[in-house]
Amino acid sequence: MQNPPHDPGSALAIRTQYRQSESRAARLRLLVDTGQELTRLAPDAMRERVLARACAFLAMDHGLLLEWDADGRVSTTARHGSRDRLNSLEVVADRTMRTPYWQDRPGESLPNVLRVPLRGGDGNAFGALVLANSVSLRVPDNEDSESLQLLATLLAAHLENDRLLMALKARDRTLSDLVNRLFRAQEDERKRVAYDLHDGLAQTLAGLHQRLQGFAGRCPILPETLGADLQTILALAQHCVVEGRQLIGGLRPTVLDDFGLLKAVDKEADRLREAGISVHWIARCEARFPSQVEIGLFRIAQEAINNILKHSQANQVQLALQLHEGQALLGVDDNGKGFAATEQQLDTDNARQLGLATMQERASLLGGRLTCVSAINCGTRLHIGVPANLDGTPQ
């Protein structure tokens, strides 16, 4: 069988197509492999890896990764090659750069320089890949330039995401610090008001009640109507004294400072008992905790009891306070009407949901976690766990 005649043109075309296919495959591998790696790397490692891959892709032996802030201050965040030669590169912040820019510098130690912009979501450049070589090279073709621009875009997206995440974390820390200061200021103010009421109005009311009792004891027998009025006045005075003491106890319960969290929560639970709700302790821990832990958990328990009285229509409540593996665990469960899971979304117009948000924030500031499980006609279970030994404070 006769072989077909050899066609040098066809062979050259096949070799050209093969080389083009290899180039496209190399570009695709560059983008795919780098994209997969960036998801697993820290920001500094991302910068180093992208710069090294970009230099290797164009066979260039020097490179810089530049980034600049809103004021145009430029910093070098990664470098590749001789530091002395890299120092000869012009370092500028050019926010208007949109596409790769090739520069020939005859006679320089790095005669060819390629600048590839790192653009943010607003389209403006916040950095640049600067690639250079110690011997002259030809200008890369459009496909190579586009591949490098895609590589730079991958890095820019990851860096911008990291910047946004860091900004959100900083804002969250600032907000948490402000809330923590607010809670502390609130506690200090409650303590001040409680002491002022105790030393002022409460003493005056107690003195008034005693004087009225003394007057009633020395008073001659009065007509029935006047006698009934005097007894009503005595009852009102006694009620004022009791309410004053309850108000002071709610602002800053002395039992919390004197006897600890367990006694303070049990004293607060008297409000449930007075409302006809059965209270049962399933776990009791009389250990003392750091002051901020006791105050935080007491306020959470106080808010939980408020919610039960206002919303739950429960007739039974189970309380628990435990110390387990360095965690102070508080539980408040009721058999009330509960609420749907969708209602757990924060609604600032709903007092119960705002109370839950406040409890969650208090638990978070203590480094702990609050979980609330509820369903219609199935009651509500509230469990809180926080570190019991904050900042190394002895228990």
TrEMBL record:
Residues 292-390 form the Histidine kinase/HSP90-like ATPase domain. Keywords: Kinase, Transferase, Two-component regulatory system. Gene3D superfamilies: 1.20.5.1930, 3.30.450.40, Histidine kinase-like ATPase, C-terminal domain (3.30.565.10). One of its GO terms (molecular function) is phosphorelay sensor kinase activity. GO terms for cellular component: membrane. Pfam families: HATPase_c (PF02518), HisKA_3 (PF07730). Residues 42-169 form the GAF domain. This is Two-component sensor histidine kinase. The lineage of its organism: Bacteria, Pseudomonadati, Pseudomonadota, Gammaproteobacteria, Pseudomonadales.
